Amino acid sequence: MRFCRSGRRQWLVVALLLILPANLIGCSAAERDNGQNGRAFGEGVSVGLPEHMAALQGPARSLPKDLSPGPVTQSGQFTFSRGWQVLMTLERQVWAAPDGHRLCLVDHSSSDGTGVTCAAVARVLKHGITSTFLREGAHGVPADRSIVGLVPDGTARVRVLTPGYPPAVASVRRNVFVLHDQVPEPPETVELLGRG
Length: 196
Hints:
Elements: E1 2-6, E2 9-16, H1 29-33, H2 43-46, H3 49-52, E3 61-62, E4 82-88, E5 92-99, E6 102-109, E7 113-120, H4 121-127, E8 129-135, E9 144-150, E10 157-161, E11 168-171, E12 176-181, E13 189-193
Antiparallel strand pairs: 1-2, 2-8, 3-4, 4-5, 5-6, 6-7, 8-9, 9-12, 10-11, 10-13
C-alpha cells in the first residue's frame, strides 16, 4: 500500500491483481535486458502483450516527464521511461510501462496524485492489473473510490467484489475499465467476465 497526499487529503493506492484463468506467456531474454544489446526498448516485454492486449499494440512512447520515475537506483526504483498510454481524460492519464519482467500501470490524476502498480508480465496476461484511488469521506461527504484496470483481450466486463458491499460491474473497452463508486474500501476481487 502507498499513501499519497494531495493538499489535506490522503489517498490510498491499492494494487490488485485480477483472478481468472488465461494463457501464460514466459519471459524472454529480451525482457531481461530491458532494451540493451541493440534491442528496441520494451521489445521483449511487448512480445506476447499485443497478442493478448490490443491496447498495447504499436511502439512504446516516452512517458511525460512529470510521470517518468527516473533512472534505476540500488534502492529499487522503477526503470521505465516508455510505455503505452491506455487512458486519457481531462483529469486522469494512465500508462502501461514495461519494467524488466514486469508491466506497471502509472496512474496519474490531477486531483489524486500519481500511483504505480506493477506485476509480472505473465500474471498480467492471466489476471490483468488494477490501480485504485480511495478518498476518505468526511463531514457528510461520501467516500470516493476510483479503479482503473488493464485486462486481457476477450474480457467484456469485470465484476468488482468488496466484502460488505454489493458487487459492481464495469464495461471493458480496448482492454481498459474504469469504475467510480462511493465504496470506502479497496476491492477484494475483480472477476473477468466474457472470456472464452
